[in-house]
User: Fold this.
Amino acid sequence: MRVLIVPASRFGGTAEIGRAMAATLRAEGLDVDVSQPDQMFNLSPYGAHIIGSSVYFGEWLDSAVTFVEEHAAEIRSKPTWLFSSGPFGPGTPDEPIRGDVVERLTSLTGAVDHHLFGGRLELDRLPSRERFMAGWVGAQDSDLRDWDEIEQWTKGIAATLT
Ligand SMILES: Cc1cc2nc3c(=O)[nH]c(=O)nc-3n(C[C@H](O)[C@H](O)[C@H](O)COP(=O)(O)O)c2cc1C
Assistant:
């Protein structure tokens, strides 16, 4: 089966999660393509989807939401998993991603599961306004992406698909 992974990302942290997922699925014998949401138009070759986004201010990136909205019918017709990447330690909102956002995305896609992974924050790469806001909430450079957790979650998907 061919699986599509769409990891929407601003600074590459979530894209790296997508690539790690792809490596895990390939090791389990699946064909995998990884694409950013604004480069993906034809979903027909794929038998399953993993769609994710980094989280900013409790929301998915617009490109990921637009992708889901535009392809909802096709996405729903195949098994689909969702993930988010965000929490960065001190300063992370109490509700890292808004509950109603997850509810809406799950309902649009008919997703089997949504999983929230830790994120990576590199303050030097942020535009000055966001760097100021991050400093204001006490955020520091961090990388809370747990590669074992990512691998285990992805292996669960592979087990369902193979
Ligand atoms: C301005 C700003 C707002 C953020 N808001 C959230 C948030 O609401 N919830 C969360 O879990 N992470 C939040 N994050 C952390 C990002 O989601 C995290 O850094 C993520 O790993 C970035 O991934 P990317 O490199 O793929 O864009 C925020 C980061 C910044 C800079």
The mean pLDDT is 97. Residues 9-14, 54-58, 85-88, 92-93, 96, 119-121, 126, 130, 133-134 surround flavin mononucleotide (CB under 6 Å). The chain has one domain: 2-161. DSSP finds six helices and eight strands in the chain.
